[in-house]
Amino acid sequence: MPDSTRPPESERGGSRLDRFVRERRLPLLRFLSRMNVQEHDAQDIAQESLARLLRYSASEPAEAWQALLYRIAINLLRDRARHARMEQRLGAAPVEPSAAAEAVSPEPSPEQHASGREALARMQAAIGQLPARCREVYLLHRIEGMTYPEIAHRSGISSKAVEKHISRALRLLRAQLEAGTTRNQEDVL
């Protein structure tokens, strides 16, 4: 039976997530320091990591928060290093990325996973809207890896017809995907 004299958890020290954030901020800063991240950058990365964790906390079990927090921080570190390398290539003021940033995992971030799944779903929907023969030829070429003459022989059409179907499929897919992108941008506005 709950103790009715105890204040609610929100008054006793905040939610589980609030406590987690308070408890993990300093260890995260120490971790970033060991990764040779300068203090001001470490503060920024820690703050951004904790903010991004808030987006996922409701959909992830509390036991996964720590691993997710560190994965987010590592991905942010990697993104900063990539950005610094790009600035160097483009002739901006030289910024030396830390050696630790080069050693971070190449695995995509949760945001990249979600974005990739959305792009795949859009592409599958666009392919599904192609005319039947056009879709068949496109999939034989792109998925099965068949050459135009192989597709022509299998489908009973000329190589020139295969070329036209592929060209039409690419044109239609590009138009559908661009229309979807424009529609998604309008939804945001």
From TrEMBL:
Gene3D superfamilies: 1.10.1740.10, Winged helix-like DNA-binding domain superfamily/Winged helix DNA-binding domain (1.10.10.10). Belongs to the sigma-70 factor family. ECF subfamily. Keywords: Sigma factor, Transcription, Transcription regulation. This is RNA polymerase sigma factor. Residues 89-117 are annotated as: Disordered. Residues 22-85 form the RNA polymerase sigma-70 region domain. Residues 92-106 have a biased composition (Low complexity). Residues 122-173 form the RNA polymerase sigma factor 70 region 4 type domain. Transmembrane segments: none annotated. PANTHER family: RNA POLYMERASE ECF-TYPE SIGMA FACTO, RNA POLYMERASE SIGMA FACTOR FECI-RELATED. Pfam families: Sigma70_r2, Sigma70_r4_2.
